Protein backbone atom coordinates (compact mmCIF):
# COMPACT_ATOMS: atom_id res chain seq x y z
CA UNK A 1 0.00 0.00 0.00
CA UNK A 2 1.41 3.40 -0.98
CA UNK A 3 1.65 6.43 1.28
CA UNK A 4 -1.59 8.35 0.59
CA UNK A 5 -3.88 5.27 0.48
CA UNK A 6 -2.27 4.10 3.74
CA UNK A 7 -3.12 7.39 5.47
CA UNK A 8 -6.66 7.41 4.07
CA UNK A 9 -7.09 3.89 5.39
CA UNK A 10 -5.49 5.04 8.63
CA UNK A 11 -8.12 7.78 8.95
CA UNK A 12 -10.86 5.20 8.45
CA UNK A 13 -9.25 3.02 11.13
CA UNK A 14 -8.88 5.91 13.57
CA UNK A 15 -12.62 6.63 13.32
CA UNK A 16 -13.61 2.96 13.65
CA UNK A 17 -15.08 1.70 16.98
CA UNK A 18 -11.91 -0.10 18.19
CA UNK A 19 -9.67 2.96 17.88
CA UNK A 20 -12.45 5.37 18.74
CA UNK A 21 -12.61 3.64 22.12
CA UNK A 22 -8.93 4.47 22.67
CA UNK A 23 -9.56 8.06 21.56
CA UNK A 24 -12.42 8.49 24.05
CA UNK A 25 -10.26 6.99 26.80
CA UNK A 26 -7.42 9.40 26.01
CA UNK A 27 -9.84 12.32 25.75
CA UNK A 28 -11.24 11.54 29.21
CA UNK A 29 -7.72 11.24 30.64
CA UNK A 30 -6.71 14.54 29.02
CA UNK A 31 -9.74 16.40 30.35
CA UNK A 32 -9.30 14.93 33.83
CA UNK A 33 -5.61 15.88 33.87
CA UNK A 34 -6.44 19.38 32.66
CA UNK A 35 -9.04 19.88 35.40
CA UNK A 36 -6.60 18.61 38.02
CA UNK A 37 -3.91 21.02 36.82
CA UNK A 38 -6.34 23.95 36.84
CA UNK A 39 -7.53 23.05 40.34
CA UNK A 40 -3.92 22.62 41.49
CA UNK A 41 -2.95 26.01 40.06
CA UNK A 42 -5.96 27.63 41.74
CA UNK A 43 -5.05 26.11 45.10
CA UNK A 44 -1.38 26.91 44.59
CA UNK A 45 -2.18 30.58 44.14
CA UNK A 46 -3.60 30.48 47.65
CA UNK A 47 -0.03 30.26 48.93
CA UNK A 48 0.94 33.48 47.15
CA UNK A 49 1.68 36.51 49.36
CA UNK A 50 -1.51 38.26 50.43
CA UNK A 51 -2.25 41.77 49.18
CA UNK A 52 -4.17 42.57 52.33
CA UNK A 53 -7.49 42.77 50.48
CA UNK A 54 -9.43 39.54 50.61
CA UNK A 55 -11.50 40.29 47.53
CA UNK A 56 -8.37 41.06 45.50
CA UNK A 57 -6.62 37.88 46.64
CA UNK A 58 -9.65 35.81 45.63
CA UNK A 59 -9.89 37.61 42.28
CA UNK A 60 -6.21 36.91 41.59
CA UNK A 61 -6.71 33.25 42.43
CA UNK A 62 -9.67 33.00 40.05
CA UNK A 63 -7.81 34.83 37.28
CA UNK A 64 -4.80 32.60 37.83
CA UNK A 65 -6.96 29.51 37.46
CA UNK A 66 -8.56 30.90 34.29
CA UNK A 67 -5.20 31.81 32.73
CA UNK A 68 -3.86 28.37 33.58
CA UNK A 69 -6.91 26.83 31.93
CA UNK A 70 -6.37 28.91 28.79
CA UNK A 71 -2.72 27.90 28.66
CA UNK A 72 -3.62 24.25 29.06
CA UNK A 73 -6.22 24.57 26.31
CA UNK A 74 -3.40 25.48 23.92
CA UNK A 75 -1.34 22.59 25.29
CA UNK A 76 -4.24 20.13 25.15
CA UNK A 77 -3.39 18.76 21.67
CA UNK A 78 0.18 18.10 22.82
CA UNK A 79 -1.19 16.36 25.89
CA UNK A 80 -3.48 14.25 23.70
CA UNK A 81 -0.55 13.26 21.47
CA UNK A 82 1.52 12.29 24.51
CA UNK A 83 -1.30 10.27 26.07
CA UNK A 84 -2.05 8.48 22.80
CA UNK A 85 1.58 7.38 22.63
CA UNK A 86 0.88 5.22 25.70
CA UNK A 87 -1.59 3.14 23.67
CA UNK A 88 0.27 2.75 20.38
CA UNK A 89 0.87 -0.97 20.83
CA UNK A 90 -2.79 -1.57 21.68
CA UNK A 91 -3.87 0.53 18.70
CA UNK A 92 -1.56 -1.38 16.35
CA UNK A 93 -3.02 -4.68 17.56
CA UNK A 94 -6.58 -3.44 16.98
CA UNK A 95 -5.81 -2.18 13.46
CA UNK A 96 -4.13 -5.46 12.51
CA UNK A 97 -7.02 -7.49 13.92
CA UNK A 98 -9.58 -5.34 12.12
CA UNK A 99 -7.93 -5.14 8.69
CA UNK A 100 -5.85 -8.32 8.54
CA UNK A 101 -7.74 -10.95 10.54
CA UNK A 102 -6.14 -13.79 8.56
CA UNK A 103 -2.62 -12.74 9.53
CA UNK A 104 -0.94 -14.28 12.59
CA UNK A 105 -1.45 -11.95 15.56
CA UNK A 106 1.63 -10.00 16.49
CA UNK A 107 3.21 -10.29 19.89
CA UNK A 108 2.58 -7.73 22.59
CA UNK A 109 5.65 -5.67 23.38
CA UNK A 110 6.67 -6.33 26.97
CA UNK A 111 7.48 -3.67 29.54
CA UNK A 112 11.24 -4.27 29.48
CA UNK A 113 11.50 -4.30 25.68
CA UNK A 114 9.22 -1.28 25.42
CA UNK A 115 11.27 0.61 28.00
CA UNK A 116 14.56 -0.20 26.23
CA UNK A 117 13.08 0.89 22.90
CA UNK A 118 11.73 4.08 24.46
CA UNK A 119 15.08 4.94 26.06
CA UNK A 120 16.89 4.32 22.77
CA UNK A 121 14.43 6.59 20.99
CA UNK A 122 14.88 9.25 23.69
CA UNK A 123 18.67 9.11 23.25
CA UNK A 124 18.30 9.55 19.47
CA UNK A 125 15.91 12.46 20.00
CA UNK A 126 18.28 14.26 22.37
CA UNK A 127 21.29 13.65 20.11
CA UNK A 128 19.50 14.96 17.02
CA UNK A 129 18.19 18.03 18.83
CA UNK A 130 21.71 18.84 19.99
CA UNK A 131 23.06 18.24 16.48
CA UNK A 132 20.47 20.54 14.89
CA UNK A 133 20.59 23.16 17.66
CA UNK A 134 22.54 25.70 15.54
CA UNK A 135 19.91 25.48 12.80
CA UNK A 136 17.13 25.81 15.38
CA UNK A 137 18.78 28.95 16.76
CA UNK A 138 19.19 30.35 13.25
CA UNK A 139 15.53 29.52 12.67
CA UNK A 140 14.57 32.18 15.21
CA UNK A 141 15.54 34.76 12.60
CA UNK A 142 14.62 32.66 9.55
CA UNK A 143 11.06 31.31 10.02
CA UNK A 144 11.19 29.20 6.85
CA UNK A 145 14.37 27.48 8.03
CA UNK A 146 12.75 26.88 11.41
CA UNK A 147 9.74 25.25 9.72
CA UNK A 148 11.95 23.04 7.55
CA UNK A 149 14.05 21.94 10.52
CA UNK A 150 10.92 21.24 12.58
CA UNK A 151 9.28 19.17 9.84
CA UNK A 152 12.46 17.35 8.87
CA UNK A 153 13.56 16.50 12.40
CA UNK A 154 10.13 15.49 13.67
CA UNK A 155 9.32 13.70 10.44
CA UNK A 156 12.34 11.47 10.99
CA UNK A 157 11.57 10.94 14.68
CA UNK A 158 7.85 10.22 14.20
CA UNK A 159 8.55 7.89 11.28
CA UNK A 160 11.21 6.02 13.25
CA UNK A 161 9.16 5.68 16.44
CA UNK A 162 5.87 4.67 14.84
CA UNK A 163 7.34 2.29 12.24
CA UNK A 164 9.50 0.44 14.75
CA UNK A 165 6.60 0.33 17.23
CA UNK A 166 4.58 -1.54 14.60
CA UNK A 167 7.47 -3.65 13.28
CA UNK A 168 8.41 -4.87 16.76
CA UNK A 169 5.12 -6.76 16.90
CA UNK A 170 6.35 -9.04 14.09
CA UNK A 171 10.14 -8.89 14.43
CA UNK A 172 13.04 -8.58 16.84
CA UNK A 173 14.43 -5.09 17.56
CA UNK A 174 17.38 -5.71 15.20
CA UNK A 175 15.09 -6.94 12.41
CA UNK A 176 12.71 -4.00 12.93
CA UNK A 177 15.64 -1.59 12.61
CA UNK A 178 16.88 -3.28 9.44
CA UNK A 179 13.40 -3.14 7.91
CA UNK A 180 13.11 0.55 8.72
CA UNK A 181 16.52 1.38 7.26
CA UNK A 182 15.75 -0.60 4.10
CA UNK A 183 12.64 1.58 3.62
CA UNK A 184 13.97 4.82 5.09
CA UNK A 185 12.48 7.09 2.41
CA UNK A 186 8.97 5.64 2.83
CA UNK A 187 9.24 5.75 6.63
CA UNK A 188 10.50 9.35 6.58
CA UNK A 189 7.73 10.41 4.18
CA UNK A 190 5.11 8.82 6.44
CA UNK A 191 6.63 10.53 9.48
CA UNK A 192 6.67 13.84 7.62
CA UNK A 193 2.99 13.55 6.70
CA UNK A 194 2.13 12.45 10.23
CA UNK A 195 4.02 15.44 11.68
CA UNK A 196 2.16 17.80 9.35
CA UNK A 197 -1.18 16.38 10.52
CA UNK A 198 -0.14 16.80 14.15
CA UNK A 199 0.13 20.58 13.77
CA UNK A 200 -3.29 21.06 12.11
CA UNK A 201 -5.88 22.24 14.68
CA UNK A 202 -8.60 19.66 15.49
CA UNK A 203 -6.96 17.12 13.16
CA UNK A 204 -4.08 16.89 15.63
CA UNK A 205 -6.42 15.30 18.17
CA UNK A 206 -6.55 12.09 16.13
CA UNK A 207 -3.36 12.48 14.07
CA UNK A 208 -1.26 10.06 16.20
CA UNK A 209 -3.81 7.26 15.76
CA UNK A 210 -4.14 7.99 12.03
CA UNK A 211 -0.35 7.90 11.65
CA UNK A 212 -0.02 4.71 13.68
CA UNK A 213 -2.75 2.97 11.65
CA UNK A 214 -1.11 4.10 8.40
CA UNK A 215 2.19 2.66 9.62
CA UNK A 216 0.51 -0.70 10.22
CA UNK A 217 -0.50 -0.82 6.55
CA UNK A 218 2.87 0.42 5.29
CA UNK A 219 4.87 -1.96 7.50
CA UNK A 220 2.77 -4.92 6.41
CA UNK A 221 3.25 -3.96 2.77
CA UNK A 222 7.04 -3.72 2.95
CA UNK A 223 7.27 -6.87 5.07
CA UNK A 224 5.25 -8.91 2.59
CA UNK A 225 7.16 -7.37 -0.30
CA UNK A 226 10.43 -8.36 1.31
CA UNK A 227 9.24 -11.94 1.78
CA UNK A 228 8.01 -12.04 -1.80
CA UNK A 229 11.38 -10.78 -3.00
From TrEMBL:
Membrane topology classification: Multi-pass membrane protein
Superkingdom of source: Bacteria
Keyword Thylakoid tagged: no
Locations listed in the record: Membrane
Pfam family, one: EI24
InterPro entries registered for this protein in UniProt: CysZ/EI24
Keyword Flavoprotein: no
Keywords noted in UniProt: Membrane, Transmembrane, Transmembrane helix
Official protein name in the record: Cysteine biosynthesis protein CysZ
Protein species of origin: Zavarzinia aquatilis
Amino acid sequence: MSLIPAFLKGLEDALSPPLRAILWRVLFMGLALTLLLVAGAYQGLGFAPSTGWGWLDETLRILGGILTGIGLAFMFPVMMTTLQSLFLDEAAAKVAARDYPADPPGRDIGFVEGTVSGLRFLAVTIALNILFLPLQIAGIFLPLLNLLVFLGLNGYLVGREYFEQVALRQASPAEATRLRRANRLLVFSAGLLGTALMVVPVVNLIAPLVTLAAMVHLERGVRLSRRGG
